[in-house]
């Protein structure tokens, strides 16, 4: 959050996204709309790693006041997506290879055992309820829609882990996935083929779970969160 003065114009050295992000989704609060729009801009690469953005400039870009932008950016700062730059705005965080490896490791430690336990506890037909979410991911990936796929990916994993009944686990794994979806500094944007390969793993995982092929399901789940398989 900019500190000390109320800004009327964008700060020197702060940027706004070069292109308008996706339209903010309809939610009850302006803050929620802004937060969703900023998440889209992060995933889509319109908010570039290492760049500083002013809350007033972003507010003008999205057609809102600076207050909900600051509030949304503060939440993103708490999630590690941005860093506060006093009197200037917010810098989009840059992730190192170590950051990516640690995210993948923690995701594997939490998600894979949970999926293995669920595989042995739930009847095969229960998994078919997740099929529309997997299909939505494939559809978005086929369009090369990185933002749409990120949303579908998050919805699939959220629904999957929520089957454990553990709200805290669902919250933590959802946060880790969101962090893993941010593009790295200077890294290439994911190609359609890469998105499709990622999306196809959701389908393959469901197929293995329905067939009660536990070892196959565990292998797919582990590869799915691997930093080597998905570098960004």
Give structural attributes:
disordered C terminus, elongated, single chain, 3-stranded antiparallel beta sheet, 232 residues
Structural topology:
Blueprint: H1 30-44, E1 52-53, H2 55-62, H3 66-78, E2 82-85, E3 89-92, H4 97-121, H5 124-127, H6 131-142, H7 146-162, H8 167-181, H9 192-210, H10 214-224
Antiparallel strand pairs: 1-3, 2-3
Protein name: GntR family transcriptional regulator
Domain HTH gntR-type: 28-95
InterPro entries: GntR_C (IPR011711), TF_FadR/GntR_C (IPR008920), Tscrpt_reg_HTH_GntR (IPR000524), WH-like_DNA-bd_sf (IPR036388), WH_DNA-bd_sf (IPR036390)
Helix tally equals 10
Query: How large is the share of residues in beta strands?
Result: under 5%
**Uncertain ranges:** 1-14, 19-28, 228-232
Q: Round the Cα radius of gyration to an integer and report it.
A: 19 Å
- Secondary structure tally: strands: 3
Would you tell me the structural class of the helices and strands? mainly alpha
What is the N-to-C order of secondary-structure elements (H for helix, E for strand)? HEHHEEHHHHHHH
Strand order of the largest sheet: 1-3-2
Backbone shape? elongated
Distance between the termini: 27 Å
Helix content: 55-70%
Profile the largest sheet: 3 strands, antiparallel
Mean pLDDT: 84
Question: Assembly type of the shown chains?
Answer: single chain
Keywords: DNA-binding, Transcription, Transcription regulation
Organism: Streptomyces mooreae
Pfam family, one: FCD
InterPro entries: GntR_C, TF_FadR/GntR_C, Tscrpt_reg_HTH_GntR, WH-like_DNA-bd_sf, WH_DNA-bd_sf
């Amino acid at each position: 959050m900019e500190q000390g003065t109320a800004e009327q114009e964008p700060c020197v050295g702060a940027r706004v996204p070069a292109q308008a992000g996706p339209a903010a989704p309809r939610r009850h609060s302006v803050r929620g709309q802004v937060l969703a729009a900023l998440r889209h801009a992060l995933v889509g690469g319109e908010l570039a790693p290492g760049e500083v953005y002013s809350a007033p400039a972003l507010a003008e870009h999205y057609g809102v006041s600076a207050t909900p932008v600051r509030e949304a950016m503060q939440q993103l700062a708490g999630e590690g997506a941005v860093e506060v730059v006093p009197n200037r705005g917010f810098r989009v965080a840059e992730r190192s290879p170590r950051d990516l490896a640690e995210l993948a490791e923690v995701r594997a430690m939490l998600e894979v055992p949970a999926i293995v336990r669920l595989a042995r506890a739930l009847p095969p037909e229960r998994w078919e309820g997740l099929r529309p979410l997997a299909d939505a991911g494939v559809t978005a990936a086929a369009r090369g829609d990185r933002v749409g796929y990120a949303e579908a990916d998050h919805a699939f994993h959220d629904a999957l882990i929520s089957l454990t009944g553990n709200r805290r686990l669902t919250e933590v794994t959802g946060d880790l996935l969101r962090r893993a979806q941010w593009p790295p500094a200077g890294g290439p944007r994911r190609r359609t083929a890469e998105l499709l390969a990622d999306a196809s793993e959701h389908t393959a995982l469901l197929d293995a779970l329905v067939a009660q092929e536990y070892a196959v399901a565990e292998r797919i789940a582990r590869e799915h969160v691997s930093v080597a398989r998905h570098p960004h």
